[in-house]
Design brief:
This is SLC13 family permease. Keywords: Membrane, Repeat, Transmembrane, Transmembrane helix, Transport. InterPro entries: Cit_transptr-like_dom, DASS-Related_Transporters, RCK_C, RCK_C_sf. This protein is of the alpha+beta class. It has a domain of about 170 residues: Alpha-Beta Plaits (2-Layer Sandwich), CATH 3.30.70.1450. Helix content is about 55%, strand content about 10%. It contains 27 helices and nine strands. Strands 1, 2, 3, 4, 5, 6, 7, 8 and 9 form a nine-stranded antiparallel sheet that branches.
Length: about 600
């Protein structure tokens, strides 16, 4: 063993220790290992920094931005709401609906983002129907991970695997090369969870979601502006666009409250809708030129000061001089140069018109004004606190554009009209250029830790090959498995990656074991692709303990799961997934049979 191999193994051991112990963040650990490889002379600076310009790093950053565009335009939220509607009232039906939809979402977005989006939706769904949330969250999280196997671009492990394959001079994978395996894994995962969901623990979250629901229903008034795109369209169209939390309280036309207007009635410019709406709806109105907050339209000219007008929240303090007075009596806009655009009250009814509502202690006011005036408002003894508005703007009007950008990106990558990295980079830029997501939010969507970690671990794979360590380890493994069938060796690589990914990320596991899989395949005189793909699959879809997948960590608390729950449910599923992955990989790349006919031979 050469001194470079010894030095590399010491660096690798230190990197593994830091990854597992989490004494440092994963991106910091990746950078330390990169620098160590340069300092020891194992890699030169160009090789060490090659990961930052690598295809996997570029694709991952672009996918984060595209995912952000889908979320910012309300597409992912709308899908979640649809799931809640069609999920029925039984665990089996809910699982049958949730798993394929979540898997499809994860095929082109980040699975942790999908899991985070679905977590509150399923929690509310379970409470509303008297179901156990713990019997829904684990199937959902597993489906999010399984969905990443449907395309090449949704899991860093597959991008890194493709990078390793291409470095051997072999033709790389297409965006849908692993899709046959992915479809089989999703179907097996869904059938398995439907048959075994009764083994899942029947627990629920102690935390109540009622306050979340209630704080998401603000009383406000919407004005249909002159020349609005909503003019002559029925109310039902507007309800569909603004989301299911939108509720009509009253409809005013020509200054009179009309009770003869309903869902099918057309909207007319100048109509004022008295509604309860979500915080996101209030925050999103600036992006829809057809609607405006009625109070802002009427009194916005009284708002003065520097800076761009924005929404904030203020709580009416105990003993406030505002208590008992209506908004109309306070003449709030002229007194404070801010407009009361919305009102939330905990446990009492509110007058149909906000201007007629008499304020009470604890009322939460949604104020529209300019930052220069907020200091005066915050210092006033009538308010308990002044905080940023909780709503997140959804650019729903641009949802069709976001879907077209997503479709064009996939089409360009799938048809190889553009190289995959350029196709997704173009898609990310298009999301920003078409204002589906603003540039600041686009940068926030990119998880820098994952980007830096991928850029940092790629040199580890290069060093493992360059120092001959991969060939050395593969030679030792070859002595053990030399007489085994290719199918058995594929299972060994899947299992090795699956075990290692319980303490390392899927990307790090693939980079470490991929070169060994390549050396092993070359020693056997076989194509490298199935061995590297099975290694990546093992890193992505082995479910043993929750720390193996960040999505599982998200559901650990809300589902009140124990580690033993994941082992009991995940181990049999992982075995089924390993057999399926190895079998189909052998069929795709080694000419093996598709239908089972024994485990021997090719």
């Amino acid at each position: 063993m050469s001194w470079q191999q010894v030095a590399f193994l010491l660096i690798l051991a230190g990197t593994l220790y830091l990854f597992v112990s989490e004494r440092l963040r994963v991106d910091v650990t990746a950078m330390l290992s990169l620098l160590a490889l340069v300092v020891t002379g194992i890699l030169d600076s160009k090789q060490a920094l090659s990961g930052f310009a690598s295809e996997p790093a570029i694709i991952v950053a672009a996918v984060f931005i595209i995912s952000g565009g889908l979320a910012a335009t309300g597409i992912t939220e709308r899908i979640g709401q649809w799931i809640a509607r069609v999920g029925g009232h039984s665990e089996s039906r809910a699982i049958a609906v949730v798993m394929p939809v979540v898997a499809a979402l994860s095929s082109f977005t980040h699975h942790v983002m999908v899991t985070a989006m679905m977590l509150p939706i399923l929690s509310r769904f379970a409470r509303a129907r008297g179901l156990s949330v713990s019997r829904l969250l684990m199937p959902m999280s597993f489906a999010a991970s399984l969905g990443t196997t449907l395309t090449l671009v949704s899991a860093p492990a597959f991008l890194l695997a493709n990078n390793l394959i291409q470095r051997t001079g072999t033709e790389g994978l297409g965006i849908f090369s692993i899709t046959p395996i992915g479809i089989a894994l999703v179907l097996i995962g869904m059938v398995y969870m439907l048959l075994t969901h009764w083994l899942l623990p029947k627990r629920g979250s102690d935390s109540s979601d009622d306050e979340y629901l209630r704080l998401d229903r603000y009383r406000t008034e919407l004005l249909v502006v002159e020349g609005s795109r909503w003019s002559t369209r029925p109310l039902s169209d507007l309800r569909k666009a603004l989301g299911e939390k939108f509720r009509l309280v009253g409809w005013m036309r020509d200054g009179r409250l009309r009770k003869d207007l309903g869902e099918s009635s057309p909207l007319i410019s100048g109509d004022v809708l008295l509604v309860e709406a979500s915080a996101d709806t209030l925050a999103s109105l600036h992006d829809d030129p057809g609607l405006d907050l009625n109070a802002v339209a009427r009194f916005g000219s009284t708002v003065t000061g520097d800076g761009e007008a924005q929404l904030v929240q203020a709580v009416v303090a105990p003993g406030s001089e505002f208590i008992g007075h209506s908004v109309r009596e306070l003449d709030f806009s002229r007194r404070f140069h801010a407009v009361i655009a919305g009102l939330w009250r905990r446990d009492a009814t509110i007058a149909p018109r906000i201007a007629d509502a008499r304020l009470r202690e604890g009322d939460l006011l949604v104020l529209w004004g300019k930052p220069a005036r907020f200091a005066e408002l915050a210092a006033h003894h009538g308010f308990l606190m002044l905080v940023p508005f909780a709503g997140e703007a959804k650019r729903r009007i641009r949802a069709p554009i976001a879907l077209m950008v997503m479709g064009a990106t996939i089409l360009a990558a799938a048809t190889e009209w553009l190289p995959v990295p350029l196709a997704f980079l173009l898609g990310a830029v298009a999301m920003v250029a078409t204002r589906c997501v603003d540039i600041e939010q686009a940068y926030r969507e990119v998880d820098v830790r994952i980007f830096v970690m991928i850029a940092g671990v790629i040199p580890l794979g290069i060093a493992m090959e360059q120092t001959g360590t991969a060939a050395l380890l593969a030679q030792g493994l070859l002595q053990v498995v030399s007489q085994w069938s290719p199918l058995s060796i594929l299972l060994v690589m899947f299992a090795a990656a699956g075990l290692l990914s319980q303490v390392l990320s899927d990307a790090a596991t693939t980079v470490l074991l991929g070169p060994i899989a390549i050396s092993l395949a070359q020693s056997l005189g076989l194509p490298v692709t199935p061995f590297v793909v099975c290694t990546a699959l093992g890193a992505v879809v082995t479910f043993l303990i929750p720390i193996g997948h960040h999505g599982n960590l998200l559901i650990l608390g809300p589902g009140q799961y124990r580690f033993s729950d994941f082992i009991r449910i995940g181990l049999p599923l992982s075995i089924l997934l390993a057999l399926t992955s190895a079998w189909i990989a052998r069929w795709l790349w080694l000419g093996g049979p598709l239908m089972p006919g024994g485990f021997g031979g090719v």
